[in-house]
Design goal:
The structure is a homodimer. By secondary structure, chain A is of the alpha/beta class. Chain A has 15 helices and 16 strands. In chain A, strands 4-14-13-12-11-10-6-5 form an 8-stranded parallel sheet. In chain A, strands 1-2-3 form a 3-stranded antiparallel sheet. In chain A, strand 1 and strand 2 form a beta hairpin. In chain A, helix 8 packs across helix 9. Chains A and B meet through helix 13 and helix 14 of A and helix 13 and helix 14 of B.
């Protein structure tokens, strides 16, 4: 039952392994492109897979509102609906709902909110969050949590975390075990190490297929994130996957992998791709900048992706200036490739026991930019 | 020199053949997807080719303004710039410039206009139109013409057409002969058969690699278009390709092919794909319509394209409602496939001498919708 996780090699605190789900096996550390509304913006599922992504994330909040989990279930589930046959992790909807300032009310039972689309009222409880994700067909279901506001006092963070822990226990009870389908708990506790450790211990006591670290994608900065990981990860089981939600830049990811994180998701590569920011081994470029207007070289000369193989910076610059869809399509494709290549390199480095050297070279490349 | 055209089979006035250019051979009748600014909106060149398109059209007006023909030339020409290795036909810029009401001045020498992008002033003469297209690297260059306004009196249409004929002669003189590169003249004359015949005779006297029929994509209706073709095509050389500019619907194309047209371009499949209109063998559907919200069938059950193979109407409906890029991407892909499949069927029908039966079945299918 659940999803299976096996560690193939370790390098310091870092690990590389395999997460086995009902829809296939994912090599970790893994980066999941974000398919908010059932689509990785600007890419076909075939292009996402071609980039090397083995698992994607979809958002419960968006899908429950539109088209609705009943529609998705009737149409055969999210995999079939969006034509992605690999593993899918769904978030619980909590993160998006919490960000609806002034439009949501949190109580012990759950959260009620008004849709950002049409203003209709909805409720999300731990049980309902689990049920929606089951109807969507998620391989990995996330427990409903309250994303602790930042900044928060110790008392506020403690109260918020303990509510999330009671919700996590209810999610565990509500989750229907099925082979290849798992439920992850989410560690909260803000920036406070004692609360993070308390949260990790409570989740471990309940028992989950994997453990996420939440609440770290809302502006704390890399040092805070790494500090929280340093407090939290040692308090989690070593034999279960660890997932750092909503993070981050290549540098964030490399640092988190070195600390023992196995899974990531983030909108950075897709959102950057739409706004004209391209990732390279030597930092990022803004393709809209006039200096690229006549540049025949690709976004990243070292990148084997189809966008870099076929198109110049000058052409992408032109597409963005002319507001042509192909600009965001190509730059998103490149960025997702860039992220997936980073994950492959991290996995290889861990496998060969050379992660420290890889991280140092990566930092040099970015510093040289 | 020039482009070579050979007719493989005829069926009534219709013909199927081969147009050989510096960048490959095009089976005719052919439909050229429109890549206005150096991109077929929403599709990679690989996807355009996979749909069966062998030649595309790009717009001189848009490219001379942005990124500028000098930039394109410096970067190795339009084929390399946009990563399309097949034949490219460029229009002359005349059609777009003429539509800049209040922003352009037409004189004997040419036309001056202000850019729709930044208001800068530009001039387009027959010589400059040919030079720009050479710098872009077009396989087929179109002569600069004045697109006669519709409606126009006989006198207005005659004066406009004769200016276009003087410009056509200047284009012919300015065109540099290169193997695999051709120059097409454009028949004008509005809705007046005598003027169309006069224009066709004048162009034939000058001598071009192919002959286009212009001025028929601005709202005249199918009967008028077919009437003009019936007057014009018999006055053109039978051994040169005929190109009906800016037309049209599948029904328009089938009727024009039956009258002897070999080449088409139109924004309909791409523009429709972006606005949610999908082509099927039984007419068009508006994918945004609520009746598609739960429909598990593809846009066209008879279509083998990747969009119809992988995605339901319900999913495309969802994507359009959620304003996701993948909606226009998939529906444009389908529409281009639909048009290319139509052309393949028309070529096959001509080859087997069954065009009349095919056209009748096609009309029945659309009527049944």
């Amino acid at each position: 039952m659940g999803v299976a996780f096996s560690i193939l090699a370790e390098d310091g605190a870092a690990r590389t392994g395999l997460l086995e789900t009902a829809h296939g096996t994912v090599r970790t550390p893994a980066f999941m492109p974000v398919g908010t509304a059932g689509t990785v913006k600007g890419m076909t599922p075939a292009a996402v897979a071609e980039a090397g992504a083995e698992m994607i994330l979809a958002n419960t909040y968006h899908l429950m509102l539109r088209p609705g989990e009943q529609t998705v279930e009737t149409l055969g589930g999210l995999h079939r609906f969006m034509s992605w046959n690999g593993p899918i992790l769904t978030d619980s909807g909590g993160y998006q709902v919490m960000s609806l300032a002034g439009r949501r009310t949190i109580e012990e039972d759950g959260v009620t909110f008004r849709s950002h689309i049409d203003g209709t009222s909805h409720a999300l409880t731990p049980e309902r969050a689990v049920d929606i994700q089951r109807r969507l067909g998620s391989d990995v279901t996330m427990a409903l949590d309250e994303c602790t506001p930042f900044p928060a006092t110790h008392d506020e963070a403690a109260a918020s975390m303990r509510l999330s822990m009671r919700w996590a226990a209810r999610c565990r009870a509500a989750f229907r075990e099925r082979p290849g389908h798992g439920l992850f708990g989410i560690v909260q506790g803000g920036v406070f190490g004692d609360l993070r450790r308390e949260s990790a211990a409570m989740l471990t006591g309940i028992g989950f297929d994997g453990y996420a670290v939440g609440g770290l994608a809302i502006g704390e900065g890399q040092e805070t994130t790494f500090g929280v990981l340093d407090e939290t990860l040692p308090a989690l089981p070593t034999d279960a996957p660890r997932y750092l939600m909503g993070v981050g830049t290549p540098s964030d990811i490399a640092g988190a992998v070195a600390r023992g994180v196995d899974m990531f998701d983030c909108v950075i590569p897709t959102r950057s791709g739409r706004t004209g920011r391209g990732y390279t081994g030597a930092g990022t470029i803004n393709i809209r900048n006039a200096r690229h207007a006549g540049d025949p070289s690709p976004v990243d000369p070292d990148c084997p992706c189809p966008a870099c193989a076929g198109y110049s910076r000058a052409y992408l610059h032109h597409l963005f200036r002319a507001k042509e869809m192909l600009g965001p399509i190509l730059l998103t494709t490149h960025n997702i490739h860039h992220y997936q290549r980073l994950m492959a390199e991290l996995r290889d480095a861990i496998g060969s026991g050379t992660l420290a050297g890889f991280a140092a070279r990566m930092a040099e490349g970015e510093a040289a930019a």
